[in-house]
Inverse folding.
């Protein structure tokens, strides 16, 4: 099912703050928002998953391109073997940007379609990141517009616009409290409507009035910041209203066990897995349809098991073929594999949660040593409910604009923008070879 | 001595060294400034916590960091002028507001905040009195009738629903704490009657600026009263309040918050080091390291007020047992922190010898001459090096028979013309600190080779940490940079061109007062630089 080009999200094309949830079109949704009008039974979900400091391209790019048996996983992609049949690996694209801020000049423009603003030490993302662009269309249906989680570092990846980050949760216990604490009701659980929910909404009305009043007096730039605040308040009001309505009827949704450790777990791997398990249940319970998991963030200098130095340091200082950098990247891919398998383990109808999702896996550079943004590593997983081909390695022979992959992902998630990206990044085309 | 950064410096101050104590230099009044637009700042994590404690008591439980700080150009105080409040932040501020409000209105605490006994479940008059008083502190100004009516109404609605006056009041207080009037610092100014055509901050705005700068928190009632009475409109009234504020223990809190921000000590909580390499690593070591540095700063500014440059050269520090063991000196006390004078002829002195600097500006398993040099150059001398060009191969060789020390391994930075331009400004500084490993422990050798810690800081030779620290302290940019950083933190932005002269005046005063930081702060917050404002853009 395709939608015509008039289906444009308001408030996005100017690159300004995404503050308005798209009103649904009858053509798209069933009344309960839990299925698409063509009766695909489950909603589409989007996950952005990031690792740090790129790859070693000669060990990342699979030798052959094609579908199914025509291609095999490379050394660095090997850990994804259990989910190969649901992957779309895209190689050979480049991010079209001036590479002046190492680790961000490719990453920001890839995720936002716009140049990173500022210089090193004082920069921000040029617009909303792809997860928030999608969240604008799904927010009306779920208690949480989106959920951001960090495997280890709390640097925000997801942004609503310049200087408007969505800080991630890094503590599994805190994430549990937030998602499955007192505000959560599992399907079938009886509940008395808490009278305080309506009172909290009255308070939020007062707070909104104050923010609106302040908006009339501040500069244009500060109005955008206050719009972000207002948007967050409206999100919370909506969530409180929903809580009064009761839990969704979803078979795979159940109250998970509470993690018994405060703060982060002992290492990034254990932490990532604990957070992933909670996040997957949040998706299964339709608490949100958009998540960002930054396993590692740009420039991460995490000390991987068995390494003699931090990861970022090694990408620059390890000589020769950089075997430790390679081993670290393989470990990161093992974590992505865990994430994808966790999604794939949730049955939904005759498919899985992964089948109904689109996972966009990427990193902050291509070759870490040189901060290159050419030969950009992108691995997609899931088909967004049958919208992408699967088990495919697409090799871009012409060093295409990596933004085309993002536009394909957006369209697969039924966000129909006529173009994606500004200036030299602008494209009206996705990559048709990976579209179903 | 005062040429490169500040060419217009008054000749008196440039005559060569500070004047005698009994010949006070009169530099005249601080120069006026070209007005700059106001900035809208969000409360930082520490300001939020301090504000809640000042409102509701030291022992109230405050959830940590509802919205994390963003560092921008080296300071979270600059990031505060840029960032919005995220949806998750809204959620967490809401949760925190109720946690705090419920504690404040619990039966054993409420007497301090509710100045009346309610006559019924819904008592708008008592709610009004309570919210008027709390609101003035929380929003740093008197609330309007409309604002109070809305808060009273929501309290009454809640009281009626829940059947209890104080439970209802929780919702009014929670509204106060979630409002942008609390979470942000709106500033608009007013026409200055003494300078037609120009604007100044209002008295209440100025009170907030003073308290957030000096106390890292909201004004107290006395400061708000002084603002209301017009006392802050006169220099004498303003100075009286500033002197009171500097003498208040909360000023130490404000100083610690500034030092924490400038020296990025918050990063210590996330620092990762390899315990197989660093045997002195202990649980809580980095928290102790942060405390050591903050105590030294406090000592230099408040306990024994002396030259700010002592931060670099003093042998006096405050250690607990873990730090003492790491530094190789006797522990001053069994529990907690104690005063220690490091050996006069020893290799370690000042901030450059602190674990908080040596460990933070390094890698998980080793030192980093470049990072340590970059910190000195950027944070202490205000000459931030540019980032490396894209596409460059930045690998350095592993230790080998020909290159066993870091100095030999990074020599390529200085030999390759593409690298040397920036690295020459950083590496020699960091190489002067190579006797201190990636945790800060002293070492004579690296891979069996005696460490060469000699170098040159813009023409001043040094050999080792103590001489390097003296060279940094004696560098012509050191004190002007300290002033610049204090100004940036106080204004929440970089200085504008029209403010250069005002800053030079501050530098000259700092010099004349033997670089005492309290004096700098006092001069800064009483000068037109701090009080003058332009139009909203």
């Amino acid at each position: 099912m395709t939608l015509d080009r008039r289906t444009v999200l308001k408030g996005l094309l100017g690159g300004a703050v995404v503050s308005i949830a798209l009103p649904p079109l009858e053509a798209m949704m069933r009344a309960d928002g839990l299925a698409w009008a063509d009766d695909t039974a489950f909603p589409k979900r989007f996950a952005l998953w990031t690792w740090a400091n790129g790859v070693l391209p000669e060990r990342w790019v699979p030798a052959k391109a094609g579908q199914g048996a025509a291609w095999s996983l490379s050394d660095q992609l090997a850990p994804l073997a259990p989910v190969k049949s649901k992957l779309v690996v895209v190689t050979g694209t480049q991010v079209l940007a001036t590479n002046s801020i190492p680790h961000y000049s490719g990453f920001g423009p890839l995720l936002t379609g716009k140049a990173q603003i500022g210089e090193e030490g004082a920069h921000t993302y040029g617009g909303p990141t792809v997860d928030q662009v999608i969240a604008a269309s799904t927010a009306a249906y779920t208690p949480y517009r989106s959920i951001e989680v960090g495997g280890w570092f709390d640097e925000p990846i997801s942004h609503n616009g310049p200087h408007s980050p969505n800080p991630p949760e890094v503590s599994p216990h805190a994430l549990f409290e937030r998602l499955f604490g007192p505000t959560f009701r599992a399907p079938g659980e009886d509940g008395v409507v808490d009278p305080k929910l309506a009172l909290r909404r009255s308070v939020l009305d007062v707070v909104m009035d104050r923010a609106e009043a302040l908006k009339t007096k501040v500069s244009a730039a500060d109005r955008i910041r206050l719009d972000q605040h207002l948007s967050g308040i409206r999100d919370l009001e909506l969530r409180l209203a929903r809580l009064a309505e009761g839990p969704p009827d979803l078979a795979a949704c159940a109250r998970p066990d509470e993690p018994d450790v405060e703060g982060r777990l002992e290492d990034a791997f254990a932490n990532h897995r604990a957070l992933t398990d909670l996040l997957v249940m949040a998706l299964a319970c339709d608490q949100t349809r958009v998540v960002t998991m930054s396993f590692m963030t740009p420039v991460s200098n995490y000390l991987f098991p068995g390494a003699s130095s931090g990861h970022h340091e090694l990408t620059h200082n390890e000589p020769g073929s950089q075997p430790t950098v390679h081993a670290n990247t393989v470990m990161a891919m093992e974590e992505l594999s865990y994430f994808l398998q966790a999604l794939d383990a949730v049955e939904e109808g005759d498919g899985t949660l992964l089948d109904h999702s689109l996972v966009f896996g990427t990193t902050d550079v291509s070759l870490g040593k040189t901060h290159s943004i050419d030969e950009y590593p992108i691995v997609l997983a899931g088909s967004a409910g049958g919208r992408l081909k699967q088990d495919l390695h697409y090799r871009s022979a012409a060093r295409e604009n990596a933004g085309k992959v993002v536009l394909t992902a957006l369209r697969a998630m039924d966000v129909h923008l006529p173009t994606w990206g500004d200036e030299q990044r602008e494209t009206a085309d996705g990559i048709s070879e990976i579209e179903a | 001595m005062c040429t490169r950064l500040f060419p217009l410096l008054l000749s008196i101050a440039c005559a060569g060294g500070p004047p005698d104590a009994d010949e006070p230099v009169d530099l005249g009044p601080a120069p006026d400034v070209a007005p700059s637009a106001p900035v809208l700042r969000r409360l930082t994590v520490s300001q939020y916590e301090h504000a809640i404690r000042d409102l509701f008591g030291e022992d109230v439980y405050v959830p940590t960091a509802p919205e994390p700080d963003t560092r921008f150009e080296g300071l979270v105080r600059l990031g505060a002028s840029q960032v919005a409040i995220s949806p998750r932040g809204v959620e967490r501020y809401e949760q925190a507001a109720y946690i705090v409000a419920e504690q404040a209105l619990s039966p054993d605490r409420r007497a301090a905040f509710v100045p009346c006994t309610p006559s019924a479940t819904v008592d708008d008059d008592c709610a009004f009195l309570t919210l008027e008083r709390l609101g003035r502190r929380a929003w740093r100004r008197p609330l309007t009738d409309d604002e109070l009516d809305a808060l009273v109404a929501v309290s009454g609605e809640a009281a009626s629903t829940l059947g209890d006056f104080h439970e209802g009041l929780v919702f009014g207080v929670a509204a106060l704490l979630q409002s942008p009037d609390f979470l942000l610092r709106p500033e608009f100014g007013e026409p200055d009657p003494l300078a037609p055509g120009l604007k100044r901050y209002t008295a209440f705005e100025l009170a907030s600026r003073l308290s957030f700068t000096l106390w890292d928190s909201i004004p107290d009632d006395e400061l708000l009263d002084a603002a209301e009475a017009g006392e802050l409109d006169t220099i004498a009234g303003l100075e009286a309040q500033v002197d009171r504020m500097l003498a208040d223990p909360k000023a130490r809190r404000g100083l610690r918050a500034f030092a924490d921000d400038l020296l990025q000590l918050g990063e210590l909580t996330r620092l990762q080091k390899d315990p197989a390499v660093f045997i002195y690593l202990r649980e809580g070591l980095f928290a102790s390291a942060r405390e050591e540095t903050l105590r030294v700063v406090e000592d230099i500014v408040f306990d024994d007020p002396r030259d700010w440059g002592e931060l670099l050269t003093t042998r006096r520090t405050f250690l607990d047992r873990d730090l003492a063991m790491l530094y190789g000196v006797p522990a001053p006390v069994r529990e907690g922190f104690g005063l220690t004078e490091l050996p006069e002829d020893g290799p370690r002195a000042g901030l450059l010898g602190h674990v908080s600097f040596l460990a933070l500006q390094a890698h998980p398993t080793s030192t980093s001459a470049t990072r340590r040099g970059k910190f000195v150059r950027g944070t202490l001398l205000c000459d931030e090096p540019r980032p490396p060009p894209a596409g460059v191969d930045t690998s350095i060789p592993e230790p080998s028979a020909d290159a066993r020390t870091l100095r030999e391994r990074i020599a390529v930075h200085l030999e390759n013309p593409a690298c040397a331009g920036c690295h020459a400004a950083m590496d020699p500084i960091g190489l002067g600190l190579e006797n201190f490993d990636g945790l800060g422990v002293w070492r004579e050798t690296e891979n069996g080779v005696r460490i060469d810690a000699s170098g040159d800081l813009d023409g001043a030779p040094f050999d080792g940490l103590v001489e390097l620290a003296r060279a940094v302290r004696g560098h012509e940019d050191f004190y002007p940079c300290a002033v610049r950083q204090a100004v940036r933190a106080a204004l929440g932005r970089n200085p504008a061109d029209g403010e250069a002269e005002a800053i030079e005046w501050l530098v000259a005063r700092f010099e004349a007062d033997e670089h005492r930081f309290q004096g700098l702060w006092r001069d800064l917050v009483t000068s037109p630089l701090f009080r003058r404002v332009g139009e909203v853009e």
